[in-house]
Amino acid sequence: MLEHLRDLLNHMAWADGQFFHAWSTGSKDDEELRERWSHVVGTATFFTEIIRGEHDLPWDKIRSGEVSPPWLDQPLKSYDELKARTQANHAKLAATLATWDGAALKQRVRIPWFPEPPCVLSVAEAVTQAVLHTQHHRGQCMTRLKDKGGKNSDVDYIIWLWKGRPPARWA
């Protein structure tokens, strides 16, 4: 299981790098892409923080409306900012990945933005959700690139395997 999750995370980094390379050939200012990728990297970052025990937002107060979420009314991030944030999150995931063992994958984490009853998953399940969530939205973004006349890229898992599991390319 550990090796499979490592593959999924390495594929995610590679696919995100491919996405940013494809996006760089089109309109970096496309608002829809920037909004969607802000959601993607924000959610992936939340999962990374949860897995690492670093997440501390007051979700009960956010859900009740007592506190505004910190991302509300923030200016939309630029292509370069989103790329840098995505790379930083992958670096944190890679550092965490290097310390994992089978026991770490079984640890339980609470996904705090879900209301009662609590959403409690294993670390392995949380990682799987982060990977699948990113895959879903990356596909939407690739379609947007193509629809806007840009060049998209085939980032299927099988393509990554077929190419010999290449590392992420961010340039």
What descriptive keywords fit this protein?
single chain; 171 residues; mainly alpha; Four Helix Bundle (Hemerythrin (Met), subunit A); 62% helix; globular
Q: How is the topology of this model organized?
A:
Blueprint: H1 2-24, H2 31-52, H3 59-64, H4 79-97, H5 102-106, E1 108-111, E2 119-122, H6 123-147, H7 157-162
Helix pairs in contact: 1-4, 1-6, 2-4, 2-6
Summarize the structure.
The chain is mostly helical. Helices cover 62% and strands 5% of the residues.
Describe this structure in words.
A hairpin with a 7-residue loop joins strand 1 and strand 2. Strands 1-2 form a two-stranded antiparallel ribbon. Helices cover 62% and strands 5% of the residues. It has 7 helices and 2 strands; from the N terminus they run H-H-H-H-H-E-E-H-H. The longest helix has 25 residues, at 123-147. Helix 1 (2-24) packs antiparallel against helix 4 (79-97) and helix 2 runs antiparallel to helix 6 (123-147). The protein is mainly alpha-helical. The chain has one domain (2-162): dinb family like domain (Four Helix Bundle (Hemerythrin (Met), subunit A)). The chain has helices spanning 2-24, 31-52, 59-64, 79-97, 102-106, 123-147, 157-162, and strands at residues 108-111, 119-122. It is globular and about 45 Å long.
